[in-house]
Amino acid sequence: MIPISGTTNVFPVIGWPVEQVKAPAIYNAYFVKHDIDAVCVPMRVAPEHYVAFVRSLMSAPNVGGICVTIPHKAATVGIGDLATREALTAGAANTIFRDAQGRIVADLIDGEGFVRALDITAGTGGFDYRKSSALIVGCGGVGSAIAASLAGRGISRLGLVDVDANVVSRLALRLVTHYPSIEISTQETDESEFDLLVNGTPLGMNPGDVVPFDVALAKDSAIIAECGMKTEMSELLRVAQARGLRIQKGKEMLFEQAPLYMDRFGWPGSTADQFRTLGVL
User: Fold this and answer.
1) pTM of this prediction?
2) pLDDT: is 220 or 189 the higher one?
């Protein structure tokens, strides 16, 4: 049980809906274990009220920061005093905090969480970004974050796929603006051409879902990565694992970005393994 008092720092997780979020479970368990006077609270806020609600929340000194989930990531980029390069490149932000000067900053850390997890999934030596390519299916908030972080690590080529062609074209433009040497494909892509295949869509979370790409066409050395956390082993991951491919579960991104949240919110020095061993996911 987390004791709540007038000194407690509050960290909302805001989404619409918000029932699916896993962050409160692991952050509250971490706060309890380390005797931190803080609580993470999910809040369901409709898009039309989001900007005004966040600006009001951040005027309260005991709101230490905000975690942002769907569908508010795009609206978060311009919500504060400044945005980080990662947020500007992706056109999305999932973290709001105050910096040392008291400015409200919009940041994007789930992409960094993804690539940190990818280095572990790849094994010895990590993932060779400069000699590799990645296909991202679903270029919304999480897909764009991963694209920006992969570009930041120097990946040679990105394939971008989304049902909304405008989403893809805007993301591609932002990526080449910040990383002009990157090669980007926005047309129909062949799964066999890529070293990493990422599902940034909700497809595969429910039994009977169509998977977002054909795992049978992937090269034997490919890594298949999931972003969703509704279920630990999606249909996509089950198919990939049955084929003997390396897989990355969605929750690994959550574990790897947890220390980044703690750093922005005033508790640096934590590790992803501290959150894995909490045993709440």
Assistant:
1) 0.92
2) 220
Do 234 and 134 fall into the same domain?
yes
Same domain, 120 and 205: yes
Angstrom distance (rounded) from CA 204 to CA 211: 5
172 domain residue, yes or no: yes
Q: Considering the chain, what is the average pLDDT of its residues?
A: 93
Contacts (Cβ under 8 Å, ≥6 apart) of 25: 280, 281
Six-digit token string for 39: 């609580």
Residue 251 pLDDT: 92
Are 93 and 116 in a shared domain?
Answer: no
Q: b/e string for 54-71 if b means 16 or more Cβ within 10 A? A: beebbeeeebbbbbbbbe
Structure tokens at 192: 């066999």
What does the pLDDT read at residue 127?
94
Residues 239 and 124 in one domain: yes
